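Why should sequence recovery work at all? Because a backbone constrains its sequence more than one might expect. Tight turns favour small or flexible residues, buried strands favour hydrophobic ones, and helices have their own preferences. The token representation captures these environments compactly. In the example below, the structure is given first.
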């Protein structure tokens, strides 16, 4: 008996493993409840019967044989169990709760019609009310349970009050005693059992729901724990990547002529244990480079394709490769061939080859340049990056008009590399930055937001707050939302270009007229004499130096032409045609190697100049370098398809 009661107590707390187990336990537990209730009521009945017989409290019980009563009770209990079992069997097979309730409540209502034994029918109004309480739960759901149950109770009370006054609490029908007893016991136990089994059904459904919720909560917690573990691992990976990329973004500037600053703010922030890090695809590098005996500062502002770890991986590869190339530069820093244009070309070719291996899955845009420390002359390439900006006297403008180079890693691009030049003046600022400074969401006065499509909007911000990078970022955060990594570099030139003679008095003008007059007469020796006199009296006058170069070439004085051309390039580096004069003079001297070298430099500055292209094709033909001759001939034919020199060179074998 103790084991049986323990099973009754604990059966609502059992955690089931499957839907079939749940259904099986519902049926078995409810059948046990019915038998238990029948047994309990039978014991109570015998107890009351014994007292009644002893004290003669109930008159009509005096005439009832206790054994006859047991005979009545047993079939009525068996019938009750059979009815409930059938209704549960139907419910279990059909899965229809309403059918089960309908069968059960049919007997409950039938009892009210057939009752003719018990003292009052009013008691059964309340009994049936409690029996019917579960109905709203199945029909309307939990939300409206109390409202429906209240109205149900009120309605039933009204019905049974009316019923009471109509019948005066007397039986409506009269049956033989044996039928009356069987009907009484059966329907009484049935009604009580229905109430208890319905209550247990709700209790068991609640336990099942709680069990399901517990299982779902357990699964959710496990999923969250797994997600948290993955997030921790991911943050750990991000943290390690940041440890690798952080040393690659650095500023190594110590100069009395230049002040170079950089700013980097990544969109993705990572918190790993006690460390707060940022990870992104933007990269800033500022380092000192020595080429041909001159001091330069390398500046790189790069933006690797992709967000988070993809971008960081691109920045890591780009930075590591560039760092390796910088270390290699120290070995050739004293070589004569270490000129800015050639060096930038070599760096570009190395990086391009590395990133082409990723088949367009990792592209990098960027500006890579060299600024000469003393003169402020800037050599740079722009690989599909936002334009460089000049800030001078409170005004900002772009120094570029069109993109001439695709991103690092873009295959199949046959466009020639163009190294651009810009000569800074004293107190000029040059700024370059990633597209994060332009891809911002502007905050409107009415609270709405607008994506910025105007690339010149940044110029307005720059003119408003000045060239301080932190102030620029603060202003952007004030007026807009940043949607991407944001990196910037600013270069201030504090020196001044080399002195160029601009004092041209009457004596200078007279001597210059004599020089030009003799040159026109083709008296080149006499013209050169006037030029030398002018150069002695007016040092670093580029106009005089240019005349010396041209006259020297006419006279075959190629060494003098070369030395004076180099002097002009020192004073006015943007005079690219004097690189051509050096190349031509070397060619005339028979030094084809140097002639080709200077021709390459000039073509890096002006890759689509037909005169320079024709010159280098001739040089490659003389050195039997057929591949390069064809390469530059193809470029020339795109500009001049009928050029005989290029057509002949393209057919060389």
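From this structural description, the recovered sequence reads:
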């Amino acid at each position: 008996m103790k084991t049986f009661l323990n099973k009754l107590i604990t059966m609502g707390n059992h955690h089931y493993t499957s839907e079939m187990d749940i259904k099986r336990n519902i049926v078995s537990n409810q059948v046990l409840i019915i038998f238990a209730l029948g047994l309990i009521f039978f014991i109570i009945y015998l107890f009351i019967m014994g007292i009644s017989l002893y004290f003669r409290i109930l008159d009509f019980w005096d005439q009832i044989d206790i054994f006859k009563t047991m005979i009545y009770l047993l079939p009525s209990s068996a019938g009750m169990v059979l009815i409930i079992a059938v209704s549960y069997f139907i419910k279990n097979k059909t899965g229809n709760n309403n059918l089960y309730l309908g069968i059960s409540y049919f007997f409950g209502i039938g009892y009210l019609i057939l009752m003719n034994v018990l003292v009052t029918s009013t008691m059964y109004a309340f009994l049936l009310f409690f029996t019917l309480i579960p109905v709203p739960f199945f029909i309307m759901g939990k939300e409206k349970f109390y409202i429906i149950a209240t109205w149900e109770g009120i309605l039933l009370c009204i019905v049974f009050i009316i019923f009471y006054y109509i019948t005066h609490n007397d039986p409506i029908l009269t049956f033989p005693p044996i039928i009356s007893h069987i009907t009484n016991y059966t329907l009484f136990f049935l009604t009580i059992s229905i109430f208890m089994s319905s209550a247990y059904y709700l209790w068991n459904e609640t336990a099942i729901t709680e069990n399901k919720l517990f299982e779902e909560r357990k699964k959710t917690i496990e999923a969250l724990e797994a997600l948290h573990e993955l997030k921790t691992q991911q943050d750990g990976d991000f943290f390690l990547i940041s440890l690798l990329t952080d040393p690659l973004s650095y500023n190594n500037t110590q100069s009395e002529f230049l002040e170079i600053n950089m700013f980097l703010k990544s969109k993705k922030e990572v918190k790993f244990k006690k460390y707060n890090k940022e990870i992104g695809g933007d990269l800033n590098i500022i380092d000192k480079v020595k080429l041909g005996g001159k001091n330069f500062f390398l500046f790189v502002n790069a933006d690797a394709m992709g967000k988070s770890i993809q971008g960081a991986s691109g920045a890591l590869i780009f930075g590591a490769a560039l760092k390796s190339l910088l270390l290699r530069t120290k070995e050739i820093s004293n070589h004569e061939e270490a000129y800015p244009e050639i060096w930038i070309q070599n760096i570009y070719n190395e990086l391009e080859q590395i990133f082409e291996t990723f088949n367009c899955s990792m592209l990098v845009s960027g500006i890579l340049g060299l600024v000469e420390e003393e003169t402020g002359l800037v050599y740079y390439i722009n690989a599909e990056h936002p334009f460089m900006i000049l800030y001078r006297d409170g005004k900002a403008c772009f120094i570029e008009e069109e993109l001439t180079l695709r991103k690092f890693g873009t295959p199949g691009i046959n466009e020639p590399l163009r190294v651009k030049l810009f000569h800074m003046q004293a107190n000029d600022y040059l700024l370059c930055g990633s597209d994060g400074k332009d891809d911002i969401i502007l905050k409107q006065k009415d609270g709405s937001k607008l994506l910025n499509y105007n690339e010149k909007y940044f110029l307005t911000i720059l003119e408003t707050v000045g060239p301080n990078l932190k102030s620029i970022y603060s202003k952007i955060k004030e007026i807009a939302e940043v949607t991407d990594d944001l990196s910037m570099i600013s270069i201030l030139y504090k020196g001044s270009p080399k002195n160029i003679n601009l004092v041209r008095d009457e004596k200078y003008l007279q001597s210059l007229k004599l020089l030009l007059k003799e040159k026109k007469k083709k008296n080149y020796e006499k013209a050169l004499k006037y030029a030398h006199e002018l150069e002695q009296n007016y040092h670093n006058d580029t106009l005089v130096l240019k005349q010396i170069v041209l006259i020297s070439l006419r006279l075959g004085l190629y060494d003098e032409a070369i030395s004076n051309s180099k002097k002009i390039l020192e004073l006015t580096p943007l005079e690219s045609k004097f690189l051509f004069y050096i190349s031509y003079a070397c060619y005339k001297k028979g030094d084809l190697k140097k002639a080709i070298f200077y021709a390459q430099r000039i073509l890096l500055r002006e890759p689509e100049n037909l005169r320079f292209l024709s010159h280098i094709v001739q040089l490659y033909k003389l050195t039997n370098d057929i591949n390069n001759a064809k390469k530059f001939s193809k470029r020339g034919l795109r500009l001049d398809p009928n050029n005989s020199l290029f057509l002949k060179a393209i057919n060389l074998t």
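A few observations help interpret the result. The two ends are 110 Å apart (CA to CA).
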